[in-house]
Amino acid sequence: MIGRWMLAAAMLCITGTALALGGNSDDGNKSGPLAAIETKIDAGEYGDALTELEIYIEGNPTSADAFNWLGYANRKLGRLELAGEAYARALLLDPDHKGAHEYAGELRLMLGDLEGANEHLAELDRICLLGCEEYDELKAEITAWKKANDR
Questions:
Q1: Does position 25 have pLDDT exceeding 80, yes or no?
Q2: Given CB 3.0 to 4.6 Å as the disulfide criterion, which of 54, 91, 98, 147 pairs with 134?
Q3: Are 36 and 16 in contact (CB under 8 A)?
Q4: What is the pLDDT of residue 32?
Q5: Contact criterion met (CB below 8 Å) for 101 and 123
Q6: CB–CB of 131/110 below 8 Å?
Q7: Which residues make Cβ contacts (< 8 Å) with residue 150, sequence separation at least 6?
Q8: CA distance linking residue 77 with residue 63, whole number of Å
Q9: How far is the C-alpha of 79 from the C-alpha of 15, rounded, in Å?
């Protein structure tokens, strides 16, 4: 039990250091190689984002973040099969990718697969030692889906 708390404390220190060194922050400022693409996605410019993501992925074929955003943009455009393939690739590259688990869970709900969504929620529960936004958001989506579908 002590080991888990020590690990959690260490993770908090690492996260704080990463934010202080210029990682993404909650104030909407984006940084990193995908920042311009994320800005387009935030603006709902999914087609433009897809074009840029395809170019980015050609040079960065092991970027789980890029495949996660590829899945997100395709999902928003209703291209659910392509979205699923992109999320699967993101999770193959990084099995603990929180964003890909959240969005893949939301895709599962869109497809009526509550069990699949719950599997992604369970993975987020495992990954997020002290909880995380992705877990909270997917849990809320599952709750809303259950209510809307009388489950």
A1: no
A2: 98
A3: no
A4: 85
A5: yes
A6: no
A7: none
A8: 21
A9: 34
In this prediction, residue 29 carries a pLDDT of 52
Kindly tell me if the per-residue pLDDT of 122 is higher than 50: yes
Could you tell me if 98 and 134 are in contact, meaning their C-beta atoms sit under 8 angstroms apart? Answer: yes
The Cα–Cα gap between 113 and 48 comes to 30
CA dist 115 and 127 (Å) reads 19
> Which tokens go with 148?
């809307």
pLDDT digits (tens, 9 = 90+) for 40-79: 999 999 999 999 999 999 999 999 999 999 999 999 999 9
- DSSP string for residues in 87-117: HHHHHHH-TT-HHHHHHHHHHHHHTT-HHHH
Rounded distance between C-alpha atoms, residue 42 and residue 4, angstroms:
36
pTM strictly above 0.85: no
User: Considering the chain, what is the average pLDDT of its residues?
Assistant: 85
Count of CB atoms within 10 A of residue 92's CB?
A: 13
Closest CA to 73 of 50, 98, 43: 50
pLDDT at residue number 17: 32
Tokens of 35: 């920042």
Q: CB neighbours (10 Å) of residue 148?
A: 9
Q: Tokens 């995908």: give the residue.
A: 34
